[in-house]
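Suppose you are handed only these lines of text.
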Amino acid sequence: MTATPAKQNGLEHEQVLRLDDPASGLRGFLAIHSTALGPALGGIRLSRYATEADALADALKLSRAMTYKTALAELPAGGGKTVIIEHKAMQRSTVFEALGDVIEGLAGKYFAGPDVGVTTADLAAVRGTTRYVADETSTELGNIAEHTAIGVWHGMRACLDFAGLRRETRKAIRVAVQGVGGVGKCLAAILKREGLELMIADVDSVRAELVGREYGARVVSPDEILVSDCDVLAPCALGGAINRERIPTLQARIVCGSANNTVESIEAADALHRRGILYAPDYLVNAGGVIRGADFYLRGCRDSHASLARIYDRTKHILELARERDCSPARVADEIAEGRWRGASRVPA
Ligand code: NAI
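From them, the structure of the protein bound to NAI can be written out as follows.
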């Protein structure tokens, strides 16, 4: 197994390993952004990357975002991420066992969980060779995607209240969910239970139809969902859905979803603000899963519902500060998170 320090492109990461193990077929990067506040928490992503540079860029960006997420959620943890490059010849169990060896070698500095493309069986293979990985089969831990969806709902409630879309009128509130995988489907279940009007889309049309039937949602095409006539747009697929070209075409009043890096850049978040669209920063509202993981593994909590509900207060607080300063909530969230993990908060939280 070769796990060697990788070039870091000038970002402030503590450690970046290039994973290249011809014997197992493991290829990718493990990035530890910060352990200033505690062990680096972060999922394992499996994806087809066009180049190694793309995979490294993803690992660096996602691990950094995890530091901001854990800091903003006031967890005793930092941020990391593993990115595995998917390729035809790979034997999944062998690859994930080899990754477990690398994680074990870090002796608790990095604690892994699930991310896009990784199954419960894959995580079980990682667990075969390391202690430092979430056990999704544990009934005590519970379903991580569901915890994430609950957190997104708390953030969305805060946005609805802030925008004056009052609880008693919520029946008429229309939410468009892009991507009904692990998180999006759980979010659809919550929104149906809360009586909101639901529209969904997924590139997997069979999945979209099934979820649509189950939750009485109108199914639209993946092209339509982002520009649909709705009150809230909830991107729950891959990152980058909201970019500067798309912003002028949006009809939603609120953007609040689980997708990591929903908004392509901080400048795109500024453009949303200028258009009067309320944006709940992704890493603020999608922290439910990592909050559950940290509560369970680092704090030994049996239940995290009270911790998840604090996402409502944090979101409200950040939206209010952003209104006072007439800036994007993304700027305020970044500043608070940065202040925390760098150990010198400049903005009272
Ligand atoms: P998933 O892979 O289970 O679901 C994603 C769904 O989006 C799939 O059904 C896929 O077919 C669909 N999709 C992909 N591209 C699409 C497009 N262009 N239009 C419509 N649908 C599309 O992933 P999961 O776990 O639900 O995560 C969703 C997002 O939330 C990801 O960005 C992930 O990084 C983020 N996230 C997930 C957390 C979790 O607990 N699973 C925690 C925090 C963030």
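What can we learn from it? DSSP finds twelve helices and twelve strands in the chain. The first helix runs from residue 52 to 72.
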